[in-house]
Amino acid sequence: MKTYPESKLPDVGTSIFAVMSGLANEQQAINLSQGFPDFNCPEPLMQLVTKYMHEGHNQYAPMPGVLKLREKISLKTDLLYGYLPNPDTEITVTSGATEALFAAIMAVVTPGDEVIVLEPCYDSYAPAIRLSGGTPVYVPLSLPDFSVDWDLVKSRISSRTRLLIINTPHNPTGAVMTKQDMDTLANLLDGTDILLISDEVYEHMVFDGQQHHSALQHPGLRERSFVISSFGKTYHTTGWKIGYAIAPPILTAELRKMHQFLTFCSVTPLQLAIADFMDDQQHYLTLPDFYQAKRDYFCEQLKGSNLEIIPSAGTYFQLAKYDRISDKYDLEYAKQLVHEIGVAAVPVSAFYHDKTDHKLLRFCFAKSENTLKAAADQLKKL
């Protein structure tokens, strides 16, 4: 019998997003699990893609990304965060933010290193850390508002700490870091060699008059950070998988060494189209109002249900607590909802390494009003 090598990730199965979306498709349920819109991206953006395809821009893009797109990213960064990164040495276009995250982690984490991860967290962080030979050190966010206990973070820092990962606005909880959080983090890392990944893919989805505070705005953080964002989130094009990383030249050089052997480059006509469409600043400047209206509509439709809504300050996700309805484990309960009422959500335990269960489900509200109303009508039956 043939002997196969041991798995590098023996305890990792199919992503919870794929599992719940697959179950939703199988049961023809309303899918509020995986984070993607059920409406299209702007028509002018699609027309630009077609234009560039017909003009023959269908071959490899430059490895760091199309220069025009990197230049537009630089100008936008300056407009929003008061920092003008060098397009040649500080900006890299990647095949989605997940690739940027993987490349950044692989670039700087070596065997024996520790990486501080705030939980609950996006499920790609820990596998990338482990594949690089590092060890995730988990720090739980504080309930009920999922704020960061910086004293607890400080207590987990050791001589082996190489990297710390933050995510704001935060998936899955919708929590948003404040300026005070960023100042505290800068003071915490001052005088150390600890690097930072700031996952800011939901930067344009911050609600109720709050502001997104980027690591790029803080010189003490900027000089040690990979700041990662996603055009998929901003332009309702998650299937295009176009993201980017901004980092100091020395970190960018290391990230690109990984990037060139992961995907080498991202889709050329998509990059060119996005570069042109970025001139429409109103799209991303009005995105907070656009998604806040969807959040408010969904929550209004859920009034009268037995779910407890946990306020979402950002992203396009809404948490709901179901402990008044059931004491079942959240994964079991999420699957039950698909079968019994035809609505798919993601159990929040999937975002914890030890599957901590707070009886919370995550719903994606990046959907049409018809979809949100239909889902809420079903959820009110619980």
TrEMBL record:
**Protein's UniProt name:** Aminotransferase
Q: Keywords in alphabetical order, please.
A: Aminotransferase, Pyridoxal phosphate, Transferase
- Stretches assigned to the Aminotransferase class I/classII large domain: 29-378
GO terms, molecular function? kynurenine-oxoglutarate transaminase activity; pyridoxal phosphate binding
Top-level lineage group: Bacteria
- Which coenzyme or cofactor does it need? pyridoxal 5'-phosphate
What the record says about family reads: Belongs to the class-I pyridoxal-phosphate-dependent aminotransferase family.
Q: Which SUPFAM superfamilies match?
A: PLP-dependent transferases (SSF53383)
Q: Which Gene3D superfamilies match?
A: Aspartate Aminotransferase, domain 1, Type I PLP-dependent aspartate aminotransferase-like (Major domain)
Q: Name one GO cellular component term.
A: cytoplasm
Pfam families in the cross-refs = Aminotran_1_2
Q: Which InterPro entries does this UniProt record tie to the protein?
A: Aminotransferase_I/II_large, Kynurenine-oxoglutarate_AT, PyrdxlP-dep_Trfase, PyrdxlP-dep_Trfase_major, PyrdxlP-dep_Trfase_small
